[in-house]
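Working notes for the structural subgroup meeting. M.R. asked for a predicted model of this chain before we commit to crystallization trials. I am recording the input and output together here so anyone reviewing the notebook later can reproduce the run.

Input as submitted:
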Amino acid sequence: MEVVPATVYSSTWGDGLLRRCADGDQVAWNALYGQYERTARRFLLRMGVDRSALDDACQEVFLEAFRFLPKFRGNSSFKTWLYRLCLTQARLARRRERARHLLQALLGGQRTETVTHGELDSEHAARLVQQALAELPDAERLVFVLYELEGLSGRDTAEIARCPEPTVWRRLHDARKSFRAYIEARGVRQ
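Returned structure, recorded in token form:
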């Protein structure tokens, strides 16, 4: 059994659930997964993971969490750490998806989806939001998703993005402007 560093037992470990997970308690792992799976899945989707790859990406996040939890120092909240793991998996999933699309294009027969004007149903709106998010540079997309869609504070967003908080505000301003321009260019007005 691996020796868990003393920092694992810090106050950020809350009610002991994380400590029990680090000690290998399967019931605690199931509880942790149940508590955070929806959060991870939603964040991955918003960070550009295709729905067809969402299950695999989410599974990879939790495999990494389970693997590295004993080394988690507790310098931030578990949720903040989980977002960092999701961010890494989202990048990998988008890279795999781009490679898959390139391969399909090279082999022929890739279809492109066009956005039509008119009334926006919820499925169309969700697709349009995902397309707008996909157009944002990674750094802007990250702060936009964390702050606007996940509801995190600027401070927590800065910690996850590993940048100063003023940088978060600049990126958020740019992301909002680009997001709005993308949506309005497709005929949707506020």
